[in-house]
């Protein structure tokens, strides 16, 4: 569940925001003074902050500035004074948005959701660089060279990994053992095509629930192997 921290000294406003956010499926924490709010913001694992500007102790500007020293988490500033908005912009504190009191709760919710999804996209772009092949419960991370079955990682040797990846990238295509041997072992090979059979067997033991009835790599008798999609 996504966690949101509200730092707000007017408890009626804080409770109203909390109710709406919880209805929308968020987990919400409230701090009602700036000092506790700052400490909580820096130590906790939150997905978004809603900061009032005028607070006892540390003000919202300072909390915003301090959060930005270490986190890119979305921040929405809330203020009763229109002047504060100019100040937020002018100081370049790194707030993502601002809302003036009194505000419409629906509008606040829309902004919360918009900033969370924008942040997800930003983070996602950085995190999804790995090239992934996913077929049913099988997940091959080509970048990290790791293989998972139903979320559980299986240890693969280099050649096993190359062979599985090659077949999975070329599904519904029957390859002879000779073709696979050339493709994966190439000129460095000292073995023979029986190596292919041995490797297929080892791969099946790792990814198949029942090796005698394979769901991923089929044996085409007298011809070779084919990856099923
Ligand atoms: Ca206040």
Provide an overview of this structure.
- The chain has 2 domains: 3-123, Rossmann fold (3-Layer(aba) Sandwich), CATH 3.40.50; 132-227, Arc Repressor Mutant, subunit A (Orthogonal Bundle).
- It is built from 8 helices and 12 strands.
- It is elongated.
- The strands form 3 sheets. The protein has a 5-stranded parallel β-sheet, sandwiched between helices. The chain has a 4-stranded antiparallel β-sheet with strand order 6-7-8-9, covered by helices on one side.
- By secondary structure, it is an alpha/beta fold.
- The mean pLDDT is 89.
- The chain starts with a strand and ends with a strand.
- The longest helix has 23 residues, at 105-127.
- The site of calcium ion has 5 residues, from loops.
Task: Jot down its keywords.
229 residues, alpha/beta, Rossmann fold, Arc Repressor Mutant, subunit A, 2 domains, five-stranded parallel beta sheet, four-stranded antiparallel beta sheet, 8 helices, 12 strands, 44% helix, elongated, binds calcium ion
Short description:
The protein is an alpha/beta fold. 44% of the residues lie in helices and 22% in strands. It has helices spanning 11-23, 34-43, 60-70, 82-91, 105-127, 158-169, 177-184, 194-207, and strands at 3-7, 27-31, 48-52, 75-79, 97-100, 132-135, 138-141, 146-149, 152-154, 174-176, 217-220, 224-227.
């Amino acid at each position: 569940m996504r966690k949101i921290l509200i730092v707000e000294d007017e408890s009626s406003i804080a409770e109203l925001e909390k109710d709406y956010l919880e209805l929308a499926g968020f987990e919400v924490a409230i701090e009602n003074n700036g000092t506790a709010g700052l400490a909580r913001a820096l130590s906790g694992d939150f997905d978004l902050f809603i900061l009032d500007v005028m607070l006892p102790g540390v003000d919202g500007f300072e909390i915003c500035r301090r959060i930005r020293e270490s986190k890119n988490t979305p921040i929405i500033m809330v203020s009763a004074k229109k002047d504060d908005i100019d100040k937020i912009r002018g100081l370049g504190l790194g707030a993502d948005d601002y809302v003036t009191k009194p505000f419409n709760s629906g509008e606040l919710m829309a902004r919360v959701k918009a900033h969370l999804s924008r942040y997800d996209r930003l983070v996602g772009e950085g995190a999804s660089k790995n090239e992934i092949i996913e077929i049913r419960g099988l997940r091959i991370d080509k970048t990290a060279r790791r293989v998972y079955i139903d979320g559980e990682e299986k240890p693969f040797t280099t050649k096993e990994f190359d062979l599985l990846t090659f077949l999975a990238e070329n599904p519904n295509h029957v390859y002879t053992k000779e073709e696979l041997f050339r493709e994966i072992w190439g000129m460095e090979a000292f073995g023979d095509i029986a190596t292919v059979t041995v490797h297929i067997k080892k791969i099946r033991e790792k990814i198949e629930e029942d090796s005698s009835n394979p769901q991923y790599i089929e044996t085409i008798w007298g011809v070779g192997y084919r990856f099923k999609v």
